[in-house]
Design goal:
single chain, alpha/beta, 4-stranded antiparallel beta sheet, 10 helices, about 35% helix, binds zinc ion
């Protein structure tokens, strides 16, 4: 009989403890400043604390609002200690012109006497790279190498060369070449190389109906997305064609080029490298094909010289991002100037 009593008491105590800890971990209150600006915060079983937090956060939010054209986020983290105090950390981030200002404020909240003590404030600011976590200097010249018609057995070699020089590039792949080369697309994605769409079959689009053109584009987009989990955002039409019909049929920007290395024609690494080095300027988009050995060898010649001349080799999306040019669907871009 005694045993049962103590056992029930123990169970009761455990349930009571669970009840106690659950009590002040309820989320949440929400403060709205505008429709799209709000923060959720923990709700404590204490009106004084809730009011304090409400005022504090409202004030922080309105401070953000006065600072011009900043995008901001708020977030929090808190831990409850057995001594009935809560350590709360508020994180504020303001993002403007690629710079993040981070502000972390810590508070100790005493649930017994409702006292709130600010314990620490930390402010830092750092650059936020939207695409890569790699830093490029927007004031230094940058160009985009692009590779069409792959993937094939030679593409792997091109990826390794780019990686060795720690440079980026964009591959416009053909849907019909993806099967059997899925791991090459994965490798591109894992190395932050950009994958664009070069249609499914490489047939000339100018004679096709809008529906057929869309099929050529969508099929390839689906294949790329299925393998890499990334939706391609750039289209290079077969032969770089862009009639009015093509432009109105696709809902992606069309990226052509302004330096053609003619690598498919000459198969001479020296000639290919020279065709880049003799013409290259800031903002250029360079056309090559990753399916030829001569192209791979040309990269071994051209990339070190381009780096020596101060060029940053970026993906097409990065090029337009850093040049502050927004890409519109159905529009044609041959360079970023
Ligand atoms: Zn092509």
């Amino acid at each position: 009989m005694k045993k049962i009593f103590y056992l029930s008491l123990l169970i009761f105590l455990i349930l009571f403890l669970i009840y106690l800890t659950k009590d002040h971990e309820e989320i949440s209150n929400t403060i709205y400043l505008e429709d799209n600006i709000h923060i959720e915060f923990p709700s404590f079983s204490n009106r004084k604390i809730n009011n304090y937090l409400n005022n504090l956060l409202s004030q922080k939010l309105s401070n953000f609002k006065t600072s011009n054209k900043e995008t901001f986020f708020m977030d929090y983290d808190y831990t409850t200690s057995p001594t009935n105090t809560i350590a709360l950390k508020l994180y504020n981030y303001a993002l403007k012109d690629n710079i993040v200002k981070e502000n972390i404020t810590s508070y100790d909240i005493n649930l017994q006497d409702s006292r709130i003590t600010p314990t620490q404030t930390m402010s830092t600011s750092y650059e936020y790279d939207v695409y890569l976590g790699q830093e490029f200097d927007p004031d230094k010249p940058m160009i985009a190498l692009t590779f069409d018609d792959g993937p094939n057995y030679n593409t792997n070699k091109i990826i390794d060369i780019l990686n060795n020089f720690k440079v980026k590039a964009t591959f416009f792949v053909l849907g019909q070449n993806i099967e059997g080369h899925e791991e090459i697309l994965t490798k591109m994605a894992n190395n932050n190389l950009e994958i664009g769409n070069h249609t499914y079959s490489h047939k000339l689009l100018t004679k096709m109906s809008p529906e057929k053109i869309q099929e050529e584009v969508n099929k390839t987009n689906d294949l790329i997305t299925n393998i890499t989990s990334k939706q391609p955002t750039l289209l290079r039409t077969s032969y770089g064609s862009f009639t009015k019909k093509i432009r109105s049929s696709v809902d992606m920007p069309i990226i052509i080029w302004n330096i053609d290395t003619l690598d498919w024609k000459y198969h001479s690494s020296e000639r290919i490298a020279n065709s880049i080095l003799s013409k290259v300027k800031d903002g250029d988009i360079i056309l090559m094909h990753d399916i030829y050995n001569a192209t791979a060898n040309a990269l071994e010649i051209a990339i070190p010289k381009l780096l020596e001349q101060g060029y940053q080799l970026v993906t097409v999306s990065e090029l337009f991002y850093y040049k502050n040019i927004s890409l519109e669907k159905g529009q044609v871009y041959s360079n970023a100037k």
